[in-house]
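Example with several molecule types.
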Amino acid sequence: MRKVGLRVITITLLLVMAYVSNPVIEAAKPKTVTLKFWHLWTTPAETNKVAIDQVLANFKKAYPHIKVEVDAVENETYKTKIKTAIAANEAPDVFFTWGGGFSKPFVDAGKLLDLTPYLKDGTSKKLVGGTLTYQTYNGKVYALPFALWAGIMYCNQSLFEKYNVKIPGTFKELLAAVSVFRSKGITPLEVGEKDRWPGMFYQNILAVRTAGTKLSNNALAKKASFNQRAFIQSAELLKQLVKAGAFESGCLGITRDESEANFRLGKAAMYYNGSWVAGSLNQQQAPDVYGKIVARNFPVVEGSNGEPNGFLGGAVDAFAVNAGTKHPKEAVLFVKYVAEQQAKIGYQIGALLPAWKVQVDESKLPELTVQISKLIKGATGFVLAWDTFLEGADADTHKNLVQEIFADMITPQKFAIEMQKLNSKK
Amino acid sequence: MDKVLADKKAICLFVLPAFLLFAGIILLPIFVSGYYSTLQWDGIGKGIFIGLRNYVDLFQSNPDGFHQSVGNAFVLAGLSVFVQLPLALFFALVLAKGVKGENFYRTVYFIPVIISTVAIGQLWMKIYHPSYGLLNSLLTWVGLTNLTREWLGRTDNALWSALIPVVWQYIGYHMLLMYTAAKSVPTEIYEAALIDGASATATAFKVTIPLIMPTLKVCVTFAVIGSLRSFDLIYILTNGGPVHATEMPSTVMFNAIFQKYMYGYGSAISVFIILACLILTIVIQKGFKNRTNLD
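Resulting structure tokens for the full complex:
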């Protein structure tokens, strides 16, 4: 009885297993090719999302034989997700990435498709000059950029008028404006320092104003020292702003989203962040401040050798193709289409500045986008946000150091010394 | 069927699938982590074997707040054992004694355990928000304006602010464990205590608590280990910030692996967490054993 019982159980188990593992006979394959595509725009509050949806719909019409499966998660989550997927060889065929330090490990490990041979058909001529710089590793292009970005000082003009303050053109005027707004209970400068990079923007642009773009780029590339007057000064000035109450004292616990919501509600006078912010300052999402925001350059620092028209920014946002894709031809076709169209449609709705030479009706562009384009036409140089230029651990260290300035835990000298340590190691 | 289960081979056969699953999902990754922790590896390319250097870095020259994170984890463990568990025990005993609306209270205390941590995190972020948060609004309303502060945004009070929700969240969980244990104590014993004239407090301390000691041991173990590997709420509330003030070993690990591409170093932290949990479990078990022996 015992043996019979065992056998019955064994046979049943085996049958179940056989049934489960029996391969399902696949239906006859249609000729269409399916590509997986990942990006990081999840809500229509990000105008890029509006653009990409339209681009994908157009692509579907133009190339019905290529089916695109889209997946999107929020920015910080995306960074984790794409790294994990690439490490596990499970990355999608085409995906969003950042040039510079972010993609370097992918390139080093041979996970990205070399796009250089595919660009000889005239594609590279359609791109705005210099935009491939941060997508090029060892002389080869591994991703197609679609957007240029630049750091912009957004000023809420109605608050400036209400309290009779001049929109600051110099650092002294900025400090004066800060003290007026502070006394009126208005946040002078918005920052979501919990996410660390928004605060880093302030230090980075101050370094452009005190050291200039050339010196900043050289220091980042380990060709110049961070431990010199200009960079110490950038930290000093930031510290001065913190001490003057330019930022909310609780900013270390506030995310970028929360801080931006504050700005859109008209509770803050100024906000220095990327040009992408302009897209969300439209009538639907920011009815309180729509039409009252003007785009300016970050104030000049008096008596320093920095660049008044240097910008924080560059062309880093890009789409890359997985080296292991089964359909390289279709994937390359798709990546070219998406990069160019995203640039075009995104530009039209004010989500970005195009990395492609696109033809759009300039009179229909949002007012802020026009202002930003004008500012950038006067650009004398660009520096990438330092956390994109630097790699992994160095980027993290840098952001922590800036956060320590916000928390008043580090002296400007120490900041410069610690930054230089990144250059001198190895 | 009894005969089948008496057969050693049959036992093996039935245990094997679960064991394989357990080994594949839990044991194997632990050993693989151990191996990774000896590499200098960005998680994508090829790793270089560097022996124990990751551990040396971890304990000696780390700028990422690891030491602080271990300290924080012990603060949380202390709070869990000396604040969370006594509260849970108090609620459990009161409820088990039978109060009006027992079921209602039991459900209410258990709600935080059911709600997703992300939701709890968002909830507390709104409570702590410096400008429109519930806490600051309340303080202003009662006239204690000087007590209002940036609860999660200042290095000196962020840790306490972040730990309170963590401790609060699991009170209901421990309460339920203790409540169930207290309920399973035979009523005859309570009746005997009652006849002997024992007060409610005396019954609790002399009868219920000694009888539910095994459950308390489990609760203490869970609380301590849970503190060491606590991650989710801290990640949402502060992400270890500001300036490492609220860092936990697991947030340091997460940032090392996913922000800094330091897979080997992160694995070393994970091995540290595993070992710390194992050692503390043994210590707690020993501690409880000694006590029972003394009795």
